[in-house]
Specification:
The complex is a heterodimer of chains A (334) and B (321). Chain A has 334 residues and is of the alpha/beta class. Chain A has two domains: 134 residues, Response regulator (Rossmann fold, 3-Layer(aba) Sandwich); 154 residues, Response regulator (Rossmann fold), CATH 3.40.50. Chain A has ten helices and twelve strands. In chain A, strand 8, helix 8 and strand 9 form a beta-alpha-beta unit. In chain A, helix 5 runs antiparallel to helix 10. By secondary structure, chain B is an all-alpha fold. Chain B has a single domain, classed as Orthogonal Bundle (ABC transporter involved in vitamin B12 uptake, BtuC). Helices cover 68% and strands 1% of the residues of chain B. Chain B has a two-stranded antiparallel sheet with strand order 1-2. In chain B, a hairpin with a 4-residue loop joins strand 1 and strand 2. In chain B, helix 1 packs across helix 5, helix 1 packs across helix 6 and helix 1 packs across helix 10. In chain B, 48% of the residues are buried. Classes of the chains: A alpha/beta (334), B mainly alpha (321). At the A-B interface, strand 7, helix 7 and helix 8 of A face helix 1, helix 11 and helix 12 of B.
């Protein structure tokens, strides 16, 4: 055994014993980065809330490249972390591959999908189309021009799923509404290109849009900025982004990743695994953000309509079609 | 497509072409002097961050611009040290600068503002506002020319006009001054310049510094004029498209202008019309995004004219062997 291996072995031993004693939960952020003002940041906020309330500690890592996914999972599992929570659909495959090797560790993946869920894995999904439906309704009610916009990040089914719910909501209020939808790009840089977000916003304004929904990560910052500069309304996504431009962001479509992370950490080693958790409107997993920053923009009529639709979606009276069902959208052709 | 739509696409072209043009001219100075610079991206990124950060803290966009230029020049000097003084590999130094900038900006932003690697949004005097050229409002109603003047030519930030003025400026400097002649010579045959008693090292440093200043303006334009703040990796590959434009332009200023406008137009069209339906088939948006690179490869392969880089490019100058 070389000296290096001895050191590595010793380090692993220390990590193992420390981990086994504490069984801290671990959180792995996806490539968007921990502070993306949106999806990953929501996960971080949930973990932070758990840490503050319980005084516990959690392990975390921000990925820098695709290759680190499996490595990070194995390291946390070997360090005795439990449960290991991962954010982002791209983690589904590595989690599936790793889970069998660590039967005593519980894994959680948010947004992912697997054909067969291993016994120690729990998948958490959100009904983004339901939340998007509600903000689509608000957009259509706030629009004076009869044209609303949607700007997506990378062109993937998940983002079309957001756009599809939005289009259905807007059409429910005004069947003649015109929907302008654009995707920023087809590579991961599309999540972090605010300049393109701005240009898309200007192009959509030129086509008549006066409310624009951005489901585009960091690119959305440019969308919200340009919308505020040009005097039209925008809609944020994932986290509550109303405060970014008070009085100019109509609302935000909340995806309560923080709640999912918080609940998983709270359950700790007793977390129920082996299936899917779907968080929709009924579970408050998705929703619309109402606070003092957008109070002046939201009319009582909008509130009533949103509440009504929310109740009807929960009861099943309104069926919001998911883009995944047949890879197409009834309300808009992407 | 009606006239107004055309104007809007062209207006968008001007905005998107400006950072490309500044970075392309920056690369032109450096490469004409024999220093390959693939660190344009990193320099723009560093400038974008520091201009936004200082503009936010001081409330003055001009101080921000200076800080952006300063940050970019520091990286330029680093590149100069590595590739001129220590005769290192210019490509490796450029790659290192890109990595350094990508990591450092986010790290410093997080430690200063704690907003997750971005700066707070800039408002008021901390941003470059669009300026309305004289008579733009009055002439607005003149048919054809009025809207062109009002929509397309007027209403950009001052950095846009500066960038476009840099084109004749660069042409004049390179082709009509003694400094320009020497700068071009040092990229072709540094030994001859040395024999004439002119310092190769000083000329190359001068070129690298000009490159730093222009990249600084490009970065500041992104963060304080086009956007209101810095976001991680916000240059999004524009430094590399500028390099492609430089090759496409065969290292000449006026060609650089047309190459950057062409690439800007491609982006503007791709953003406006995502999938172009030609009736019988659809051009997907990816084709438009890839076109700058494809065109550059076509040019490099010699199908359309020939792109000959400066002969001494990439070679550190060694006086005596």
């Amino acid at each position: 055994m070389t000296l290096m291996q001895k050191f590595l072995g010793a380090a692993a031993g220390v990590a193992l014993s420390a981990g086994a004693a504490l069984a801290e939960p671990a959180l792995i952020f996806d490539l968007g980065g921990k502070f993306d003002k949106s999806f990953n940041e929501a996960a971080f906020n949930g973990a932070q809330r758990w840490a503050e309330e319980t005084g516990g500690k959690f392990l975390e890592i921000e990925l820098q490249s695709e290759a680190q996914r499996e490595q990070a999972l194995r390291r946390f599992a070997e360090a005795g972390a439990n449960p290991v929570i991962t954010t982002g659909f791209a983690f589904a495959t590595p989690v599936e591959a790793v889970a069998g090797d660590y039967p005593d560790t519980k894994f959680v993946n948010i947004d992912g999908w697997m054909p067969e869920v291993p016994a120690n894995v729990q998948l958490i999904g959100f009904q983004e189309h339901q939340g998007s439906y509600l903000v689509g309704m608000m957009a259509a009610m706030a629009s004076k021009t009869g044209t609303v916009g949607f700007i997506g990040g990378m062109d993937i089914p998940l983002i079309r799923h957001f756009g599809c719910g939005y289009a259905q909501g807007a059409k429910a209020v005004n069947p003649d509404i015109k929907i302008v939808a654009n995707m920023t790009g087809t590579t991961p840089t599309a999540w972090n290109d605010p300049v393109k977000g701005s240009e898309l916003t200007k192009a959509q304004i030129a086509q008549g849009a006066d409310v624009i929904y951005a489901a585009a990560g960091g690119t959305g910052v440019g969308v919200l900025q340009t919308a505020a500069d040009e005097g039209i309304l925008s809609i944020g996504v994932d986290s509550n982004q109303n405060h970014l431009h008070p009085g100019k962001v109509l609302t935000s479509m909340l995806k309560r990743v923080d709640v999912a992370v918080y609940n998983s950490m709270k359950a700790g080693a007793d977390l129920e695994t082996g299936g899917f958790t779907i968080l929709g409107l009924a579970e408050d997993g998705v929703g619309v953000a109402m606070d003092e920053n957008n109070a002046s923009l939201v009319t009582d009529e909008m509130k009533a309509a949103v509440e009504d639709a929310r109740a009807k979606i929960i009861s099943g009276d309104i069926n919001v079609v998911a883009y995944y069902e047949n890879d197409s959208c009834p309300a808009h052709d992407f | 497509m009606d006239f107004m739509t055309l104007l809007q696409v062209l207006d968008s072209t001007v905005r998107l072409a400006t950072p490309l043009l500044l970075a392309c001219l920056a690369g032109l100075y450096s490469e004409r002097a024999g220093i390959f610079d693939i660190g344009l991206e990193g320099k723009m990124l560093a400038a974008a961050f520091f201009s936004a950060a200082v503009a936010y803290m001081s409330g003055s966009v001009w101080l921000g611009l200076l800080a952006g230029i300063g940050a970019s020049v520091v990286l330029s000097i680093l590149h100069g040290l590595a590739s001129i003084t220590f005769r290192g590999n210019q490509l490796i130094s450029g790659v290192a600068i890109n990595f350094l900038a990508a990591g450092m900006t986010v790290l410093v932003a997080q430690s200063w503002f704690a907003q997750g690697g971005r700066t707070p949004s800039l408002t008021g005097a901390a941003r470059f506002d669009p300026i309305t050229l004289p008579l733009a409002e009055t002439l607005q109603n003149v048919p054809i020319l009025g809207p062109i003047y009002h929509e397309l030519i007027s209403g950009h930030s001052i950095l846009v006009y500066l960038a476009f003025l840099m084109v004749p400026g660069t042409w004049w400097l390179l082709y009509r001054t003694r400094f320009g002649l020497r700068l071009r010579a040092v990229g072709e045959n540094p030994a001859a310049v040395d024999t004439a008693g002119v310092s190769v090292v000083a000329l190359r440093y001068a070129a690298v510094l000009i490159c730093g200043v222009l990249c600084g303006i490009a970065g500041a334009y992104l963060a304080t004029a086009l956007q209101a703040g810095f976001v991680k990796d916000m240059t999004a590959g524009r430094g590399f498209i500028a390099l492609a434009a430089l090759i496409f332009a065969k290292w000449r200023p006026w060609y650089a202008l047309s190459a950057c406008l062409l690439f800007g137009l491609l982006q503007a069209v791709a953003l406006r019309y995502q999938n172009i339906d030609l009736g019988s088939f659809v051009i997907p948006v990816q084709v438009m995004d890839a076109l700058p690179y494809i065109l550059t490869v076509v040019i490099l392969a010699g199908f359309v004219g020939r792109a000959i880089p400066p002969r001494a490019g990439g070679e550190p100058y060694v006086k005596e062997r």
